[in-house]
Design goal:
The chain has 429 residues and is α/β, with parallel strands linked by helices. It has 2 domains: 5-66 and 323-426, Aspartate Aminotransferase, domain 1, CATH 3.90.1150.10; 72-321, Aspartate Aminotransferase, domain 2, CATH 3.40.640. 38% of the residues lie in helices and 16% in strands. It has helices spanning 5-15, 72-84, 93-105, 118-133, 173-176, 187-197, 220-233, 252-257, 283-286, 305-321, 324-344, 370-374, 378-390, 411-426; strands at residues 39-43, 46-49, 54-57, 111-115, 137-141, 162-163, 179-182, 201-206, 209-210, 216-217, 236-240, 263-267, 277-281, 350-354, 357-361, 393-394, 403-404. An 8-stranded mixed beta sheet has the order 4-13-12-11-8-5-7-6, sandwiched between helices. The chain has a 4-stranded mixed beta sheet with strand order 1-2-3-16. The radius of gyration is 21 Å and the shape is globular. The two termini are 16 Å apart.
């Protein structure tokens, strides 16, 4: 069992300095009733905390460490750029280099704009959709997280649809009323809501692979339906691929599903873990952005050279090595072993994965939407997660978060993890 005395002391101090002691809520470990671990370094598949404990990392900075931590080519690119300047607030060759790599990998993106976060990307997509269509309402899906912009902090309730229910204090009801939330993977519910609001529907935004209700892939027929009706209605279809982009496949989930959205939001991976985001899509839509068009969007530090240098190095390596089949095999190897262990101990367990992105639940049936995820076994999950943390296995501290595997998770690393999970499970959950 690992001692985290230094982390506990640092957390006490942080709570006097920052709300909840953290700068993003999931980091507080409230979902598993523990204290957050403070890290000081990382290498390959491993994280190292302030007490010098080692952890096998299955979060990967929430996705971007697809080639492992401190990849030598990424590190070299950032170091080289530091010597040339860390920020210009002006155009650079690097921005175009990254844009070309994204265009090459994601055919639906004809033009792109860099931003500083996934939230900025989705927020800007919504503004662009409203500006281009002249309409106001958007449809989202419960359990799909699109950042903390006011327009998107809305969840579904009972009934056919939920109008005007902000999911956070501080979101005006008047603004929230323009966002309608529907159950994920529910065709009938979606069509009822769509028919009701289609005359004023600017956009439909969805995670094609949901990563903020654990890991729940969209049904192909469901996504195809959304594509079909949005096109017929001249509403903008936005794929939020902040988590799935360059993670489940080189071309993201849209490549695997063979569905072409009008706009795509990206983040995380395209900066190799540095703060970054981007959105792009049809040229006729993107050309409506200032200074080309009338729809305003700006970011003083967008296209930051450090983030672009890191992103160019990582994307170049992903295109060159195409690691996705290998990542799929690694994730499958781990999850199948976990399933076998749980079955032998009579514990309900289900799992799924795409590329290097995966999820598991303590349930008898794979969840299909947010309500299904809520109904999975919290107690067993919390016990399992805390036991894993104590034994050097770092899964996401919430059942509502996806997991990620990297190219650096070799067979020896995975076998060690499997052996520890077998012991943890035998001791009882």
């Amino acid at each position: 069992m690992k001692k985290i005395n230094t982390s506990e002391e640092l957390f006490k101090e942080a709570q006097t300095l920052m709300p909840g002691g953290v700068n993003s809520p999931v980091r507080a470990f409230k979902n598993i009733g523990g204290s957050p671990i403070f890290f000081k370094s990382a290498k390959g598949a491993f994280l190292y905390d302030e007490d010098d404990n080692e952890y096998v990392d299955f979060i990967g900075s929430w996705g971007p460490m697809i080639m492992g931590h401190t990849h030598p080519k990424v590190v070299a690119a950032v170091k080289k750029q530091i010597d040339s300047g860390t920020s210009f607030g002006a155009p650079t060759r690097l921005e175009s280099n990254v844009a070309k790599l994204i265009q090459k990998s994601v055919p639906s993106i004809e033009k792109i704009r860099m931003v500083n976060s996934g939230t900025e990307a989705t927020m800007s997509c919504i503004r662009l959709a409203r500006g281009c269509t002249g309409k106001n309402k958007i449809i989202k899906f419960t359990g799909c997280y699109h950042g903390h912009a006011d327009s998107l902090l809305v969840k579904a309730g009972s009934g056919v649809s939920t109008f005007g229910l902000p999911d956070s204090p501080g979101v005006p009801v008047e603004l929230a009323s323009l966002t309608i939330s529907c159950p994920y993977n529910d065709k009938e519910h979606f069509l009822r809501v769509f028919d009701e609001v289609k005359d004023d529907l600017a956009a439909i935004i969805i995670e094609p692979v949901a990563g903020n209700m654990g890991f729940v892939p969209g049904d192909k027929s469901f996504l195809e339906l959304i594509r079909e009706v949005s096109a017929q209605n001249k509403s903008i279809l936005i794929f939020d691929e902040v988590m799935s982009g360059f993670r489940v496949a080189l071309g993201g989930a849209q490549e695997l599903y063979d569905i072409k959205p009008d706009l795509t939001a990206l983040g995380k991976v395209i900066g190799a873990g540095l703060p970054v985001g981007a959105f792009g899509g049809r040229a006729d839509l993107m050309d409506q952005l200032a200074p080309e068009g009338p729809i305003y969007q700006a970011g003083t530090l967008s296209g930051n050279p450090l983030a672009m240098a890191a992103g160019e190095a990582l994307l170049t390596e992903l295109i060159k090595t195409d690691p996705y089949k290998s990542l799929e095999m690694k994730a499958s190897y781990l999850l199948n072993a976990m399933a076998k262990i749980m079955e032998s101990n009579n514990i309900d367990f289900v799992k799924n994965q795409m590329g290097g992105m995966f999820g598991f639940f303590f349930a008898s049936k794979m969840p299909n939407n947010f309500d299904d995820v809520v109904a999975t076994n919290d107690k067993v999950f919390v016990n399992f997660l805390n036991a894993c943390m104590a034994n050097g296995i770092y899964f996401a501290p919430s059942k509502y978060e996806a997991g990620f595997i990297s190219t650096m998770h070799d067979e020896n690393v995975l076998n060690t993890v499997i052996e520890k999970i077998e012991l943890i499970t035998k001791e009882g959950l």
